[in-house]
Structure formats: structure tokens, C-alpha cells
Amino acid sequence: MNEKLRHILLHIALAGATVVSVCAIGWVVMDWWVMPHVARSGWPVVLVPDITGLSTDQATRKLLDLGLEPTIDPERRRADRIGPDLVALQRPAAGDSVKKGHVVRIWLSAGASTVPVPDLLGQDSSEALTHVQEAGLQISGIDYMTSGRVVAGHVLRTDPMAGTLLTRGSSLQLVLSTGAEPDSTIPDTTRATTPKPAPRTF
């Protein structure tokens, strides 16, 4: 049974390799022979320009000037290095040879993903670090401040404050409590005092 299964898997693998090889050969033939032949036959062929990072108007104008047909996909793509509403992806890719009138599909950027700074109030440093990392953020430093409402060693606040939207991968600063400030109004009972003499009776 195992031998039969091995034969089946081998045939599937060979079939897959054959399909990939045929596709690769077809792509080479198309790019190096068919398209130049089409060009020589009188069908105008152009190179698809690179329109990533351009606005919709700029990309559309650039494609139309070359005789290509732009179409904008309604789906937005996340692109950390490309601002929102700019071209994030195109198909065919820049540099491909196509005939005039070919459709170029465009996907606009949704911009870099943002996450809110988590609420870490009252958490110890290790727990806060875990939640910061889970949010896709980093801790750039730690400050300390006295507080009577938060236990020493626990988070008093963050900078920027909880709820602020940051780009994923950004840094924030923790402010940890050092506990309540000593109360200077409490008398020092450890200091030696001179006893008052007892009143005399006559």
C-alpha cells in the first residue's frame, strides 16, 4: 500500500513539475518571440510603466498616454511605505511588454496599519512589555514618578497616552510608579526627647 502511495505521489510531483516547466517556457516564448513578432506585424507594443507611489490621476494619465487602459480595483492593499490613496500594486508589472489597449489593474494603498497604545495602567513591567509587543509596538525607555495610587514598579502612564494611534512598529515610553512620597508631616518617633520634670507639690 505504501509503495502504491509513493508511486501516486511521484506521478503527481512529475505532473506538477511538467506544468510549471510548460508555463515557464510559454512565458519566455511570449516575452521573447510572440510580442516582438506582434510588434513587427503592426500591432503596437508598449512597456508597462512603473506607477507605484503615484496618485490615481497621475497613474491614469501615464497609462492613457501610452495607450493602456487603467482599471482601479476596489480592494485596498496595506503598504507600510506608500501613503494612502497612492498606487500600491499594479498588474501587469512594470517593464512587461503588452499591446496597446491592454488593461492595467491598479490597487491603491490603505496606508500603514495603525494600532492604539494599549491601556497598561497598574500592570507590572513584564506584563506591560508583553501587551506592548502583542500590539506590534516597542518600548523606547522607562521613566519613574512618585504616585500614591499605583503600587511601586507598576505602570503609572504611557507616553503617548493610552488610545493614541501609532503606526505598527513605533515606540512608546513607560512611566513606572515609585510608590507614594514619604509624608514629612509624620513626627519622627525615633528621635530622643528630654522628659519634662514632674511638677513640684508644696
Plain-language structure description:
With 202 residues, this protein is of the alpha/beta class. The chain has three domains: 43 residues; 69 residues, Trypsin Inhibitor V, Chain A, CATH 3.30.10; 63 residues, 2-Layer Sandwich (Trypsin Inhibitor V, Chain A). The chain is built from three helices and eleven strands; from the N terminus they run αβαββββββαββββ. The strands form four sheets. Strands 2, 3, 4 and 6 form a four-stranded mixed sheet that branches.
List the helices and strands and how they pair.
Elements: H1 2-40, E1 45-47, H2 56-65, E2 69-72, E3 77-78, E4 87-91, E5 97-99, E6 103-111, E7 114-116, H3 125-134, E8 138-145, E9 155-159, E10 165-167, E11 171-177
Parallel strand pairs: 2-6, 3-6, 8-11
Antiparallel strand pairs: 1-5, 4-6, 7-10, 9-11
